[in-house]
Design brief:
Elements (H helix, E strand, L loop, with lengths): L4 H24 L14 H34 L16 H30 L6 E8 L2 E6 L4 E4 L1 E5 L4 E7 L4 E5 L3 E6 L5 E5 L5 E7 L11 E7 L1 H13 L10 H12 L2 H4 L23 E2 L4 E2 L2 H9 L1 H4 L12 H13 L2
Parallel strand pairs: 1-5, 4-10
Antiparallel strand pairs: 1-2, 2-3, 5-8, 6-7, 6-9, 9-10, 11-12
The structure holds dinuclear copper ion (CUA).
Length: 343
């Protein structure tokens, strides 16, 4: 009896730990964890979570049955001083059939919902918004082919409407993941992958690249702004109007910022609708002022953070492909003022 006590203690400790972990799961799913797949915000994410929970319960069932049988056997058939050698058994056809059939049945419990949901997810809705996602080291391009414009790092979509994504990469393999809206899908060079999601509530949803893609993989973040249909339509209209060349700003700082942008290397890499800046190497900046973040979701979009980025991109995002243009503080504040009015 003395010998087996530590074993019981350990099993007891494991059970307590498991129970605490299980209890902690719903708490961890609260909105204070904006990238938790355990807190789904749309039908696709809910289907996928349902599948996960099913698998967890099957695993819990197996654990309980196996742990109980093991505990029972350890107590009931433990060796006692003076016991004779146990009966030696070799092969038992009946037992072997049983322990093959039971796992098959358990696997069916997981396989049937998995296949059903896989078909459900592949069944992309007919209507909805189409966004073409392009992964770059280390930011995201979001093209709206039907509406005819491009944005970056922050996708804006209407609430309660399916969003259909076609996705590819400009360089290496990335993975598109917004945990509260849908599971990850790889973004692969030379191949177009598809997925869809739908958000049930307006709000800001956070995501990030989920496939190691180089130095700033961890800084390749994104945000999905889910807004009402009216707000979305207004934004689309505004973005389409932005293609019309804008008059030079009456604000002298903004005008100077625009001039610096157009006459420096900025315009060679970035596009701003309605101006001569038509670069496609870096993120489209046509609506930079209305985005909530700078540097692909790394920093909140404040004048200070934008200035820090322009001052030294590599310091903010190691490996960033945007060169340090060695701008003066005056040039930086003019550029910040200009970028801030782009909406
Ligand atoms: Cu892109 Cu990791």
């Amino acid at each position: 009896m003395e010998r087996i006590r530590p074993v019981f203690l350990r099993i007891g400790q494991s059970l307590v730990t498991l129970t605490l972990l299980t209890l902690a799961l719903p708490a961890a799913a609260s909105s204070t964890y904006p990238q938790s797949a355990l807190h789904p915000a749309g039908p696709v994410a809910k289907m996928q979570l349902g599948l996960f929970i099913t698998s967890v319960w099957v695993a819990v069932f197996i654990f309980v049955v196996v742990a109980s049988a093991l505990t029972f056997a350890m107590i009931r058939f433990r060796s006692r001083p003076g016991d004779p050698e146990p009966k030696q058994i070799e092969g038992n056809a009946k037992l072997e059939v049983i322990w093959t059939i039971i796992p098959v049945i358990l696997l069916l419990f997981i396989a049937i919902p998995t296949v059903t949901i896989s078909f459900g997810l592949a069944d992309t809705p007919e209507d909805g918004v189409h966004v073409h996602v392009v992964g770059y080291q280390w930011w995201w391009g979001f093209e709206y082919p039907e509406e005819g414009f491009v944005t970056a790092n922050e996708m804006r979509v209407p609430v309660g409407v399916p969003v259909k994504l076609t996705m590819e990469s400009a360089d290496v393999i990335h993975s598109f993941w917004v945990p509260r809206l849908a599971g990850k899908v790889d973004v692969v060079p030379g191949r177009v992958n598809t997925m869809w999601f739908q958000a049930d509530e307006p709000g800001l949803y956070y995501g990030q690249c989920a496939e190691y893609c180089g130095t700033s993989h961890a800084n390749m973040r994104m945000r999905i702004q889910v807004v009402s249909q009216e707000e979305y339509d207004a934004w689309v209209q505004e973005r389409q109007l932005a293609a019309v060349p804008a008059a030079v700003s009456t604000d002298s700082l903004v005008a100077r910022g625009q001039e610096i942008f157009m006459t420096s290397a900025c315009a060679a890499c970035h596009n701003i609708d309605g101006t001569e800046a038509a670069g496609r190497v870096g993120p489209d900046l046509s609506d930079m002022g209305s985005r909530t973040s700078v540097a692909a979701g790394m920093l909140e979009n404040t004048p200070e953070n934008m200035a820090a980025w322009l001052r030294n991109p590599q310091q903010v995002k190691p490996g960033a492909l945007m060169p340090n243009l060695n701008l003066s503080e005056d040039e930086i504040s003019a550029l910040v003022a200009y970028l801030n009015v782009l909406k």
